[in-house]
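> example.struct
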């Protein structure tokens, strides 16, 4: 076993366990164990388990993004300080000051990619499980040879096996046009959902100060690079793997929609929209405004003065 296989072995074992568990669950409800819908639902179950386990990582990502907003003005100052200076000394000094600022704030610009990076081993693990199943190999864990054959031969819409890819269908003799069409649609949906997921953050959940910082440029680059990567590589992915990634993207879109709507970044367009919604409902509060109560001075009551005392006061 090579190094990559050794690394993926425990991941594949867990993936097989989750897939077989959901496959058994849906089979127990009356679904055909060899049907494509049964294994597709098992893949959806795998997505739910994986993304639910990554919720703490997502929360950490949101906190890191909040810290990035806090350091955005300081990043802009560093950028202006070394603006136009292209010598190596200035670039190294700028890099040192930027990293020191990140370290002080306890954040990192790459933290927004953390959930994506953590999913990559699972992504390749599922890819490996499908490839092994296509070759009729028994899984490393609970995926028996019978289940492996069922998983490999299960078809999406009854015409596109989960192990098929656009490239494989194109190279087949004769070409599998129906599989090519379904795979192409899956690639478009996967690429589009990835783009919308990144666009949600860039367009609505960033303040004007953040958009003027180097962090925004990195986000803009990721906005176009990541979908292009999946667009070109998606043609080689099995349909089962693409379905996993598509379902995961839909989870991310819904999760970010709820976070951006209810907990937007301060100063962003989403925060302004939230204030308008709360204002229309009469629920807008200003916790940052200090309410000072001024006590009204009551007039002192004059005590009654006796006659003798009044005469003395008159004198």
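> example.seq
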């Amino acid at each position: 076993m090579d190094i990559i296989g050794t690394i993926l072995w425990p991941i594949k074992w867990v993936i097989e366990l989750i897939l077989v568990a959901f496959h058994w669950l849906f089979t127990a409800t009356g679904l055909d164990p060899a049907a494509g819908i049964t294994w597709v639902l098992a893949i959806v179950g795998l997505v739910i388990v994986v993304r639910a386990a990554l919720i703490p990582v997502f929360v950490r990502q949101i906190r890191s993004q909040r810290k990035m907003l806090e350091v955005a003005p300081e990043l802009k100052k560093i950028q202006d300080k070394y603006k136009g200076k292209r010598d190596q000394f200035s670039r190294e000094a700028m890099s040192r000051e930027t990293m020191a600022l990140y370290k002080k704030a306890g954040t990192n610009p790459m933290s927004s990619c953390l959930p994506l990076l953590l999913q990559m081993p699972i992504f390749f693990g599922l890819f490996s499980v499908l490839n092994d199943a296509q070759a009729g190999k028994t899984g490393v864990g609970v995926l028996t040879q019978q289940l492996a054959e069922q998983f490999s031969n299960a078809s999406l819409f009854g015409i596109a096996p989960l192990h098929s890819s656009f490239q494989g269908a194109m190279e087949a003799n004769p070409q599998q046009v129906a599989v090519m069409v379904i795979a192409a649609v899956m690639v478009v949906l996967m690429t589009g959902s990835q783009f919308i997921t990144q666009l949600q953050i860039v367009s609505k959940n960033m303040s004007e100060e953040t958009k003027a910082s180097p962090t925004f440029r990195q986000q803009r680059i990721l906005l176009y690079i990541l979908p292009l990567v999946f667009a070109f590589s998606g043609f080689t992915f099995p349909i089962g793997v693409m379905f996993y990634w598509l379902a995961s993207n839909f989870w991310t879109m819904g999760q970010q929609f709820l976070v951006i709507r209810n907990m937007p970044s301060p100063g962003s367009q989403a925060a302004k929209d939230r204030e308008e919604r709360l204002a229309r409902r009469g629920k807008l509060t200003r916790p940052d405004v200090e309410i000072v109560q001024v006590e009204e001075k009551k007039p002192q009551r004059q005590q009654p003065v006796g006659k003798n005392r009044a005469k003395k006061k008159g004198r």
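> remarks
The beta strands are 155-156, 160-161.
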